[in-house]
Amino acid sequence: MATSNDIKNGLCIKFNHDIYSITDFQHVKPGKGPAFVRGKMKSLTTGKVIDNTWPAGHKIDTVRVERHKFQYLYKDEIGMNFMNSETFEQVAVNPDIIDNWDLLKDGQEVEILFNTEDDSVLTCELPMHLILEVTQADPAVKGNTSTNAVKEVTLETGAKINAPLFINEGDKLKIDARARAYMERAK
Q1: Which domains does the chain have, with CATH numbers?
Q2: Tens digit of pLDDT for each residue in 55-99?
Q3: Which long-range contacts (CB under 8 A, 24 or more apart) does 48-53 make?
Q4: pTM for this model (two decimals)
Q5: Closest by CA position to 66, among listed 138, 1, 122, 137
Q6: Using a CB cutoff of 8 Å and minimum separation of 24, what contacts does 49-53 make?
């Protein structure tokens, strides 16, 4: 059992019969009144983000999780299939618990969080940045380049994102996987 003073980013806790991961927190000591902890947490089962405030020293129920590196293999009717790079154990994960799963390409390394109490998969985290090739991009229209105009491009995984007008088919792009946004051309 931990207290609200132990809250940090990435901590997994049981809250309202669900498992949440702390995404943002702030310890607050106002001039008047007792200290408290304000935080945002994301449900690992539904993906819903909620705000909560705990008084200083409030008991919280933590969940022990393990992170393992897995390699993406393929998608079928069961779900997304991954293989542990060390033990070669395979696991199928429901795509609903993976943010931006359509950015995954074969052989991509990810981190999967397991609940150690029942060995269930809590979430699958993509790397911060991905390098993907553009397979379809409409040509830029002359005259549209005076502003920060964007166009929709299709990546090698089939995912569609917005990119600047100068991006063409065959370009490799660096993508922010969390925000699902174009960052720059890959070198």
Answers
A1: 2-62 (2.30.30.30), 65-125 (2.40.50.140), 129-185 (2.40.50.140)
A2: 988 999 998 888 899 999 999 998 899 999 889 999 999 888 888
A3: 49/23, 50/20, 52/15
A4: 0.75
A5: 122
A6: 49/23, 50/20, 52/15
